[in-house]
């Protein structure tokens, strides 16, 4: 999943000069990555999300033997595509391109992929009415460049005098960052993004984000992906690394790139021999990742606004037809944090849908139920190989991402959006950057 347009109007612009165009693109454009590499070892990649796929793509260009082990039945990680529900394809996961000055922006330009600037308007559900603007601009407290305390969004808003009537608005701001308002740090949210260089505009795909990654990256390496292969153990105690799956099949490698979501590392779903350093596991624990789901609601009539912020069941709804060639009436309910936990606890897709319809009926005088056609619930929380939305900056996170991303003994390498230390975590392009980074580290180790 990905952050939405709403955050563009709040905390993303809060990093001062960091969104002013710096270098056009990262150094990867000019690097040759050791053209004369000659290596007969093997690299295993754990996870076929954006980071793993791009790492594999770069390894292939260098002629290095590799294989990807993917736990699920599909590649893509937190990318996914739904067809047949609407008259346009739907992104089940990551959806917005946050700036074009990055690797995925290059892929878009190279492929001619059609994207549309998302400048849709926001409306607010506030004190039981829909408003075009809030009585008091709460965004301003999250856009300050100094004096932000290391406390949660929720506590910071209270400290700044925003009462209970702003609770769901604060939840929406935190939700765009993938977190409950009581868990994400006001200070570290800003601090960790100081090096953001991707650009400040958000774009939507006419097709899907998944299509871009599939057609430009995965197509070149998909034959080397082993699906339904759940890694349970990584033994790096000897010169060769032995990776074991849930069926007790062993895979030998000289180096391993681990790209699984931070939730999987925090849950100890993979046993490491020897155990990972305590400093690293402590760093994993400090990187947040909350529950997350997307619910697509189809209606006969377009009674809803482009964005509705501030619901108590879903903090942010968005018109999913924006940027698409067709225009079925699809409203996206984007839910993270405690709201996603609550909806998950309801136990069924129909119960989740009914809860959302009830809230929309309250906002729009019964029009939701009257024009409802069908829904599609995609709950990333209950996916055993994902377990949530995307990483966020907890209170006290400090340099945990940097520690978590450090390689071990030139054998184990860590990638994925949570391991991005340049402010591009929570994004597909941030995940891709880490795949590139870790291959670069491997090539440097080989050249020693």
UniProtKB/TrEMBL annotation:
Ranges of residues in domain Amine oxidase: 51-128, 143-443
UniProt superkingdom: Bacteria
TM region(s), chain numbering: 12-29, 41-59
SUPFAM superfamilies: FAD-linked reductases, C-terminal domain, FAD/NAD(P)-binding domain
EC number: 1.13.12.3
Catalytic activity: L-tryptophan + O2 = indole-3-acetamide + CO2 + H2O
Keywords tagged on the record: Auxin biosynthesis, Membrane, Transmembrane, Transmembrane helix
UniProt key word DNA repair: no
Pathway: Plant hormone metabolism; auxin biosynthesis
Class of the enzyme per the UniProt entry, highest EC level: oxidoreductase
InterPro entries: Amino_oxidase (IPR002937), FAD/NAD-bd_sf (IPR036188), Flavin_monoamine_oxidase (IPR050281)
Recorded family membership: Belongs to the tryptophan 2-monooxygenase family.
Protein name: Tryptophan 2-monooxygenase
């Amino acid at each position: 999943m990905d952050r939405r347009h709403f955050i563009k109007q709040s905390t993303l612009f809060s990093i001062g000069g960091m969104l002013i165009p710096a270098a056009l693109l990262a150094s990867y454009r000019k690097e040759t990555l050791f053209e004369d590499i000659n290596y007969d070892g093997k690299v295993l990649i754990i996870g076929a999300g954006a980071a793993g796929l791009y790492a594999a793509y770069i390894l292939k260009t260098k002629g290095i033997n590799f294989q990807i082990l993917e736990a699920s039945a599909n590649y893509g990680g937190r990318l996914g595509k739904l067809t047949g529900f609407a008259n346009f394809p739907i992104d089940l996961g990551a959806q917005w391109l946050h700036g074009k000055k990055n690797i995925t922006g290059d892929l878009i330009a190279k492929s001619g992929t059609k994207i549309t600037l998302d400048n849709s308007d926001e409306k607010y559900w506030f004190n039981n009415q829909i408003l075009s603007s809030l009585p008091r601009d709460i965004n301003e407290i999250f856009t300050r460049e100094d004096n932000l305390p290391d406390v949660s969004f929720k506590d910071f808003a209270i400290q700044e005098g925003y009462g209970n009537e702003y609770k769901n608005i604060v939840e929406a701001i935190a939700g765009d960052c993938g977190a409950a308002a009581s868990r994400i740090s006001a200070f570290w949210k800003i601090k960790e993004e100081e090096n953001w260089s991707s650009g400040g505009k958000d774009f939507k795909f006419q097709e899907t984000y998944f299509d871009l990654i599939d057609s430009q990256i995965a197509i070149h390496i998909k034959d080397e992906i082993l699906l339904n292969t759940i890694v349970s153990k990584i033994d790096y105690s000897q010169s060769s690394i032995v990776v074991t799956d849930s069926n007790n099949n062993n895979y030998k490698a000289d180096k391993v790139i681990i790209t699984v979501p931070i939730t999987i590392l925090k849950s100890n779903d993979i046993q490491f021999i020897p155990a990972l350093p305590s400093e690293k596991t402590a760093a994993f624990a400090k990187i947040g990742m909350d529950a997350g789901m997307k619910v697509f609601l189809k209606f006969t009539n377009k009674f809803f606004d482009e964005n509705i912020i501030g619901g108590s069941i879903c903090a942010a709804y968005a018109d999913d037809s924006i940027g698409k060639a067709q225009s079925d009436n699809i409203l996206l309910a984007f839910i993270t944090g405690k709201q996603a936990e609550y909806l998950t606890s309801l136990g069924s897709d129909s119960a989740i849908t009914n809860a959302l319809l009830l809230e929309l009926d309250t906002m729009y005088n019964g029009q939701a139920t009257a024009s409802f056609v069908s829904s599609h619930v995609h709950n990333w929380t209950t996916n055993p190989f994902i377990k949530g939305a995307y990483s966020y900056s907890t209170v006290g996170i400090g340099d945990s991402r940097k520690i978590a991303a450090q390689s071990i003994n030139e054998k184990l390498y860590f990638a994925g959006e949570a391991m991005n230390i340049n402010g591009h975590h929570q994004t597909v392009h941030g995940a891709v950057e880490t795949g590139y980074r870790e291959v670069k580290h491997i090539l440097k180790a080989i050249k020693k």
